Amino acid sequence: MKKLESRHWAFLGLAIVVIGTMLLNLEPDLDVSPDTIRMHAFIDSLPAGSIILVSFDHEASALPEIKPLATAFLRHAFGKGLRPVGIALMAEGTAVGYRLMEQVAAEYHKQYGIDYAFLGYQPQYIAAILSLGESVKQTFPRDYVGHPYDSLPLLREVHKLSDFGAVISIADGNMVTHWVEYGRARFNVTVAAFVTAVMVTSYDPYVSSGQLRAMVGGLRGAAEYEKLIGIGGAGRRGMLAQAASHLYVLALILVGNVIYFTTRSRKGRG
Amino acid sequence: MSRRVAQIVCAVFGVLMFLLFFSGHPTAKAITLAITTQYWQVIAAFALIVGAVSFVRVNVKAIQRRQDIPFRAIGLLGMISMPVLAIGWGIGGSSPFLWVFENIQAPMQSTVFALLAFFVASASLRGFRARSIPAAILLVSAVVMLLSRSWFESTTSSFLLTASDWLRNYPSMAARRAILIGIGLGSLTTSLRLIVGIERTWLGGSR
Lengths: 270, 207
Hints:
heterodimer; A: 270 residues; alpha/beta; Rossmann fold; six-stranded parallel sheet; elongated; B: 207 residues; mainly alpha; 7 helices; transmembrane helix (chain A); membrane (chain A); transmembrane (chain A); transmembrane (chain B)
């Protein structure tokens, strides 16, 4: 049998930490960050009945972070009486977005075509945003499941991008940049985003400049949003595992540096 | 001759799209809509066909050479079965297409992405060391950010939160802004070089 190396022990330790903390199933209380408070206040400020565009701009690989974020946001939106219209600018976001909207809408007894709709996927994201700015109907002549655009009462109320109260991009990459550069700059629509933690610093300049109205990032952001809307979910359930794995990584960094400096001082003396 | 035609098409559409972006004239809007909803999508569809044909050819050839047969067969099966399921039974709520996506594709992709955590753990132990002053600064910043995102209510040190906010709002944002401005200027320069025909490598020739 092959001898285990240091990295294998590190892998094993991480697996034990994550599985162990997930099995505890605790939902620790959190401080809510100003970013999350800003987003919550923004969604709250939209009048009930507002039609918002929710763009699922992510791949399936980001689901563990994206799903809690999107679920918390949709619960808030449906609870507030907003009417979301879903689209996807990345192919894999289509099925995820459709299913999530369907599930959360059912929790609030919302009716498809009246309280919400899902238009599906449009390739070539820049072209799609520019085209939405001119005509939503010509960009999506049918919804995701094939209903003609005009057959859904909700869609008859929106003609172009600027008719939406806001665009909410749920993203794991740089799609938010395109919404800011084309949606915000060209058509003056308000853009806000729910993003994976790794993308937060990429969009900080846009939040700072006001081009991005608000942003919530990562599993921590989802947990904070769940706290604000008062409904628990996968964000808060996963926080203990995430925090424990962060601390585990810090411990590994510490151990690695202790070994490095000890070895270096021994070599120096030798 | 064919390269010259391609170059002229590129220049014309480059200038046209630039002008259309800033015009609010109804004719300009109609042209934008036609380009974005029709021409651009047709080009994307052809690119997809090229990708799909290339995927099939590469994998079929590999199977004929008896290389990694199970993996390549599964790849081909996946590519063929998803359109068949979508066309045959639709893509709605209880369709087999959505079932396969939710129960096979999404968990597999999430699993592969989650493996990054193990690489991070390994790198933390073996590579993330304060070998120099810049490396030490990076290390301390990373520790502050990780700790500030890991603590819970009433255990979070206000110093950690202040420090992590400062890192995000000043050094990180300054660097990000510089990168964004650099990307913007680079894109502008490259676009101009393409439009005026200085940059010709995309045609397959020399500069």
